[in-house]
Design goal:
Helix 7 packs parallel to helix 9. The strands form 2 sheets. This protein has a 4-stranded parallel β-sheet with strand order 2-1-3-4, with helices on both faces. It is 51% helix and 10% strand. The chain contains 15 helices and 8 strands.
Amino acid sequence: MKYAYFPGCSLHSTAKEYDLSARAVAEALGIELIEIPDWVCCGATPAHITMHLLSLALPVKNLIQAKKMDSYEVVTCCAACFSRLKIANKFMKEDLAHREKVEKIVGQQYRGEVSVRHFLDVLVNVFGLKNISERVTKKINGLKVACYYGCLLTRPHDVTELDDLEEPHLIDDLMKIIGALPLEWPYKTECCGASFSLTKTDIVLKLSSDILQMADDAGAQAIVVACPLCQSNLDLRQAMINKKYKKSFNMPIFYFTQLVGLALGIEPKKLGLEKHIVNPLSLLREKEILVKL
């Protein structure tokens, strides 16, 4: 099982632990992730709010690079990268006017031939939950988690085609088979504020505070995410949220790949657990999931 891997900017910088844990899980399961050579930023939010053609040309450039690898499936972990690559493919397949302009910009022909998957989709729907369960060596021992999908994994549904729009379940399903207890809660797909983190921090603090509160009210001991922006806002901003709203949140924010990695018996240091702002190690020790790091 082999994929052209698009890590994107976040996974090579602020979300390095997501990249580390994804690669470690893939290796443990025999999934080969071959990084796309000479990839560039997908544009994320800044491109698509600044120049529509740029927001298409950047991801198309990466998809063309993947096509040169004789790979017709790209896998990415970042929800923003996933969204931009999928949207670019839709335009290149269906919109002749935009296709011609983008092909002129990138200097090559591209008609949306390379399919794009999120790593979550690969694990659950391609590799399969049964196959993962057979490789679990250490159950996550009833850890109560709020599975948080954010606003990009399932929207717009006609583009992402990943999961149920309002009641997604892929992370929940994955958590169940490794022994965690995913909880029912109403903020699965609410926005955390995304890249407003730098320009309109007050908005991010309010939205992220609401998410943390709803998870806490549901009885969660941790939140599980699939997006580096979501992880950053909920983890990095937790101290600021506590100060501004007089809260006392101390909730670890895991990437789904980190908990899957622990269940597969991968060494904790290979999963980047020490890189979190809200230290998850005491919780993992309390639940007897982790003995030492």
